[in-house]
Amino acid sequence: MPFGTHQVIADLPVVGTSLAGRRPHMGNFSAMRSWPGWHNWLKVICDSPERQGEGPFRRPPDPVSRGMSDASSRSKPSVAEIFLGFFTIGVCGFGGVLPWARRTILETRKWLTPAEFTELLGFCQFMPGGNIMNVAVALGSRFQGIPGAVAALVGLMAAPVTIVIGLGAVYDQYKDVPSVKHAFMALAAAGAGMLIATSFKIAAPLKGRWIAIFMTVVTFAAIAVLRLPLVIVMPIMAVLSTLVLWRFAR
User: Fold this and answer.
1) Average of per-residue pLDDT values in the chain
2) Which of 55, 163, 173, 213 has its CA 20 to 30 A from that of 12?
3) What is the chain's alpha carbon radius of gyration, rounded to the nearest angstrom?
4) pTM summary value
5) How much is the pLDDT for 249?
């Protein structure tokens, strides 16, 4: 019986002489039909917050359907918006572009969900070329086709190429100055910290997916601990993880 039904029944008028002065039992449908206010009582129950998905006892939204609704509610960015977004990533990407790319794509622009970004990045890491450049091309082509891919790649590379050429000329003149060396060491440490923090954020969608976590640990151990060549580990683990997830995650 839904919460609050007892109070509804208690507030109902006493049934007439046809029911011998007793309220109808929930299981006695014929008695309910003979009760003058039974249809009003059913309307109260059907319109209650518990039946309508409201109130404290409502069912939580399904994460899959919620993700689909979020994806459908996102507007497709234009070519100019794609260019400006990746141009911002390129300008701010000191110490590593990946943290800024994730922040811009997920938090600022909201072009992808965390799960979509993790899947796209995993695919782009397997493909030849720079990871973020692959992400830019894939994301731009997803939203605006070839013009979007070109806009994303040009926007990503325009500012860094210009800045690196200018800083390279300056660094060549002052590379032996101790303060310059210390500044670059500090920049490298900050970049490493940002990359570690971003790695944990990227791995967040794997929470609860124990098979995927196991394959991630195996890949990390093969590359970081055993020092196996990346060109050998990546194809093997890509095929193996696909087969394992296809077999056991169905």
Assistant:
1) 75
2) 55
3) 30
4) 0.55
5) 63
Q: How far apart are the first and last CA of the chain?
A: 37
pLDDT digits (tens, 9 = 90+) for 60-84: 444 434 444 454 456 789 999 999 9
75: three-class secondary structure by DSSP: coil
Domain ranges in the chain are: 5-46, 75-207, 208-250
Task: Render the burial of 224-246: b for 16+ CB within 10 Å, e for the rest.
Answer: eeeeeeeeebeeebbeebeebee
Residue among 86, 230, 208 at smallest CA distance from 150: 86
CA 109 vs CA 75, 78, 105, 128, 181: distances in Å: 10, 12, 5, 27, 36
Q: By the 8 A CB rule, do 77 and 143 touch?
A: yes
pLDDT value, residue 186? 83
Single-letter amino acid, residue 172: D
Q: CA separation (Å) from 250 to 85, 118, 247? A: 37, 20, 6
Amino acid at 190: A
Under DSSP, the state recorded for 236 is H
Asked whether the CA dihedral 122, 128, 129, 134 is positive or negative, the reply is negative
Chain centroid to CA 181: how far?
39
138-183 confidence digits (pLDDT tens): 999 999 999 999 999 999 999 888 988 888 888 888 878 888 778 8
CA distance to 26, 47, 215, 230, 234, per residue, from 241 (Å): 55, 49, 6, 16, 10
Counting Cα atoms < 13 Å in the Cβ hemisphere of 192 gives 6
Q: Which pLDDT belongs to residue 104?
A: 92
